Amino acid sequence: MMSGLHPTRKLLISTDLDGCLLDHHDYGFAPAAALLQKLEDLGIPVIPNSSKTLAELLHFRETLNNSHPFIIENGAAVYIPTGYFADKPEDCENIGDFWIKTFSQPRRHWLKLISQSRIGKEKFQTFADAALADIVKLTGLQPDAAARASQRQYGEPVAWLGTTAEKAEFIQELRQLGAHILEGGRFLHVSGECDKGTAMKWLVAQYLQACGAPITTIAAGDSQNDIAMLESADIAVRVPSPTHALPALEKARQVYTAARQGPSGWSESISAILANLNIK
C-alpha cells in the first residue's frame, strides 16, 4: 500500500494553489519549497485542491515531485494514482494511470446553461469563447500554461466584465438552472453541486479506510471557493490575498490567518502548526 501517510503521524494537508501555495502574480512557490520537501520526508501528504485543470495539476505535480492524489476544478473530480491504496475505492473509474472519482457533470453541460443566460455576452467571457491570447491576458500565465488552463473537463471559468449587479443576476439565473457558482480569486466557476470540501472529505475517508486510524486534516486557502474545504478541515489556514478579502468562516477554533501573502504565508502558517503539533 502506498497511502503516503507516516505510520505514526496521521496528518494530511489539502491546499489551494493560486494565491496560496503559489504566488498570485508569478505563480512561484520558492518560499515554500523547503517545507514541501520536509513534509514529503515526514510522510505528510500535500494534496493539491484547486480550481486548476488536470493538465495543470499534472504539470504542477511533476514540478514539485508530488506523487499524491489531487483534486481538480473546485472539487469536480479526485485523481488517485493507480495502486496508491491497496484497493481501488468504490465508484471510481480506472482511466490511464489514475482512479478517478467524479462529482460533476461534464463541461459541455454547463456551457449550454451559460448560453441560456439573458445577460449579454459582452458582460462576460468564458474560456471556451476565449482565444489563447485572451486566456494569457486574463490569467497572467505564459502561453503553454494558459493552454493547460483551457483544458477544462467539468466546469467553466467565467471572467466577469459587467457590473456587480449584473453579476448577481447572472449567478442567480444559473443557479435557477441547476448550476453551482463559486467565486475564486480571478473567475466565477460554473459547475455542478461540488466543492473542494466535499471532495476532500471523500478523499480523507479513503485514507482513513486505508490506515484505520483518525487523521488530522489541515486545509489552506485564500478565496471564497476555499470556504467548504477550510470549514471541513480540523485546522484551517487563511492566506491573505492582494485582490480580495479573506474567506469568512463560521468556525472560530483552529483557524490560522497568515501574516504574509502567498507561499511565504503558507509556509509560515504550516510550520507553526507543525511546531504546535510537536512535529519536527
UniProtKB/TrEMBL annotation:
Keyword set, alphabetical order: Hydrolase, Magnesium, Metal-binding
Ranges annotated as spanning the membrane: none
GO molecular function, one term: magnesium ion binding
InterPro entries from the UniProt entry: HAD-like_sf, HAD-SF-IIB-MPGP, HAD-SF_hydro_IIB, HAD_sf, SPP-like_dom
Gene3D superfamilies for the chain: HAD superfamily/HAD-like, Putative mannosyl-3-phosphoglycerate phosphatase, domain 2
Keyword hit for Coiled coil: no
UniProt-listed Pfam families: Hydrolase_3, S6PP
SUPFAM superfamilies: HAD-like
Keyword rRNA-binding belongs to the record: no
Location of the Sucrose phosphatase-like domain: 181-269
GO biological process, alphabetically ordered: mannosylglycerate biosynthetic process
GO CC field: cytosol
Record-given protein name: Mannosyl-3-phosphoglycerate phosphatase family
Organism this protein belongs to: Methylomonas methanica (strain DSM 25384 / MC09)
